[in-house]
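Running log. JK asked me to keep both predictions on one page so they can be read side by side. First protein, sequence followed by its tokens:
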Amino acid sequence: MQEYANGMSAGLIPGQWIKSRKSEANGTCIEAVGLPGGGVALRNSRDANGPALVYTVEEFDAFLDGAKKGEFDHLAVPN
């Protein structure tokens, strides 16, 4: 079984990478992929073979919960 780790090339991670429908055409987005056996990897769409950030299901769930509750809104550029 393949081992996935932070910093490995995102190009080595199999699967269908997805990005937000809000992403802009100029590539300013983050893409995510579910990992075989669980977990999630994130990459910068402008560097598809650059380093991936790898999270457990629990870590990603905690982040999504905080995002849904607005805990990270202060980090975003105002619309």
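And the second, directly underneath as requested:
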Amino acid sequence: MTHTVLHAGASAADQSRIAGSLAQRGLRTGDRFALSLPGSTTYLSVVLGALRAGFVPVPLDPRLTAYERDRILADISPAFLIDDQDELESLARGPAAELADLPLARPMHMTSGTTGRPKGVWSGILSPEHAAALVAEERELWGFTESDVNLVVSPMYHSAPLRFAMVTLLAGGSVAVMDHFDPGELVETIEAIRPTTMFCVPAHLQRLFTWLDESGRFLDASSFRLVAHAGAPCPDPIRLRTHATFGVDVVWEFYGSTEGQFTACPAAEWRAHPGTLGRARPGRVITADDIGLLWCEVPPHARFEYWNDPVKTARAWKGSAFTVGDLGRVEDGYVYLDSRREDLIITGGVNVYPAEVEAALAGATGLIDIAVFGRPDEQWGQRVCAAYVGDVSIEELRALAEERLAPPKRPKAYQRFDALPRTATGKVRRTELP
């Protein structure tokens, strides 16, 4: 396989032409456009070139069904959608345009709400001071320099891998992008390009270690200075093997969301305080209120709102602190997570809300009631399951899920019940489901 490494200088030239192409299409400062493609070095340059011109890309999961994608597009009303690789590549052949030194906005990533309706996280156009602070925060925390080679192994529509790659280029470094994750190809890529940094989710690490055990191969991880994992709970055996494979002084984990970042935890701190997610990132203060809800006070450059949803935005903020509904505690400055957002399923680092899956399946002929829930899974952290009531075939439910839901959201197991267990107020007792 070939390994394409994008250097900062080459990307900067592409970014200028991309900005010119987007301006020719009629985009103005603050306008949005959507991307629905697998990650690539061109994808990265398009996002960064757009942001440095004041245009806001909206990265979408390319696996979304038409049903899912159309609902999102109707809400965010982008100027246009790019879902063809040739069209994406053509942007780099436009006229050169002047770029700001730094991104003037954050990408508007989509995330699921507790009602299951996707929502955009919108930060608007940043002032020069806030734009500089945003990049400086990432660069100072993770130490990105011109000597770094960042390896992208996660989908680029997620905020963390895209953020790591962008800040690496802004620091003068280089980036390589894997268009899909395969543990054997990962080992080959590491051997070929000798990356210095990588973000991954625990499922990637689990698959890597399984492949190494089954193949008998050895991974030379000595080129890495930083391996960060997040996005899902990490089983302790996987975490400890990650420490052993890459080095205690190399591995970090962090806790955050599409909305914003909460903590960062080097491996040595986790080993000294098992179970912690680390301390608040610089410039932030994390507290737990009377019911254990975690609130994160952030600097002005890290503020956001939910697109087209002032009510949800108001509920998320209390002064300069926001919450995503997670429950936890803070002990001697160290943050511990007790419970993710109500009913949230995290499978392979992907957030799945039962309400969204239930709504997509609700139209099945003969279906009376359905409840979606998560159960532990050794490979993915959790798997999506469904309990239902009614005279409907599992085959029909599976077909509807394939039509309307991206693969991570599709239930892996279905079980029929005469009635679902509910509280006196009608809420499903998900913990009583098998």
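Observation for JK regarding the second prediction: The first strand starts at residue 5 and ends at 7.
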